[in-house]
Amino acid sequence: MKKWLQFRWWKLLILIIVLLGLGMSIYLNPYTPDARALEAMKGGNGITVSEENQWIQFDPEKPRGANVILYPGALVEPESYAPMAKELATQGHRTYIVKMPLNLAVLGGDRADAILTKEPNETFVIGGHSLGGVMASRYAANHSDRFAGVFFLASYPDSKGSLLATDLSVLSLTGSDDGVLKKDTYESSKSYLPQDAEYFAIEGGNHAQFGSYGAQKGDNPARITPEVQLQKMVEKLTEWINRLK
User: Fold this and answer.
1) 61 & 143 share domain
2) Which of 113, 105, 93 is nearest to 234 (CA)?
3) 8: pLDDT confidence band, cut at 50, 70 and 90?
4) Selection from 118, 138, 143, 116 nearest residue 128 by Cα
5) Domain membership of residue 2 as a residue range
6) Same domain, 9 and 111
7) How many domains does the chain have?
């Protein structure tokens, strides 16, 4: 009887582990880079792409201005932001896309440490898409002496990422047709940002097109192409970065 109970116990434990694994694989199924992102990962036109354990790096031939650190959105693979990173590098800004554990920035909020340690004398801005922006602002709030500014892509800070006590420049970009961004929370979160923070809505843009990974659950269809949204996003980011001291 005792051996039979032990056998049943192990069978039950194995079943629980299998079910948990299946549940996690479904929940943590990431958004993957589309063809445009995979093409951008090849670099070219003077841009060199390299990969480290914790980031993907886009290097221009002649770097100028601030370097950029980007935290990806939740469950979005980092390569999905390659088109943006390549365009920023084309403008002279060395860009780092941070790789997050399980593609969740909440599990790797301090991963910018390694980049800052590698380049102690460089100027940086940090930001992120969606959840990535929340975690980037938390990191910036605790390391404000290492950054010139913080940017948000369809994102906002929470109380732990309040930038009120810093003198950092802030840029917030959203899409007018975003179906994922919580608008009420976005508006209330402005209380954590300095009064001179800059806000710009890309007309016709949505949530997913801040990256390149296809449609996202809960999002609205965009009324502009991914290429147009990318162009407007990079224009605003580079204009802002180039004004920083």
Assistant:
1) yes
2) 93
3) low
4) 138
5) 1-30
6) no
7) 2
Q: Which residue bears the tokens 């880079």?
A: 33
CATH at residue 39: 3.40.50.1820
The per-residue pLDDT for 11 is: 52
Residues 46 and 8 placed together within one structural domain of the fold: no
Domain match, 99 and 169 both: yes
- Sequence-distant (6+) residues with CB within 8 A of 220 are 177, 178, 179, 206, 207
Dist. CA 166–CA 145, nearest whole Å: 9
The closest alpha carbon to 230, from 173, 179, 185, belongs to 173
Q: Which amino acid is at 135?
A: M
CA distance 81 to 193: 25
DSSP helix, strand, coil percent of the chain (3-state; round to 5): 45, 20, 40
Confidence category of residue 22, pLDDT binned at 50, 70, 90? very low
13 & 119 share domain? no
Verify that 116 and 194 share a domain, yes or no.
Answer: yes
Q: How far apart are CA 35 and CA 40, in angstroms?
A: 9
Same domain, 128 and 214: yes
Q: Give me the DSSP letters along 108-169.
A: -TTTHHHHHHH-TTS-EEEEEETHHHHHHHHHHHH-GGGEEEEEEES----GGG--TTS--E
Do 127 and 12 fall within a single domain? no
Choose among 105, 41, 107: nearest CA to 76: 105
Q: What's the mean pLDDT when you consider all of the chain? A: 92
Degrees to nearest 5, angle at CA 76 with 179 and 90? 95
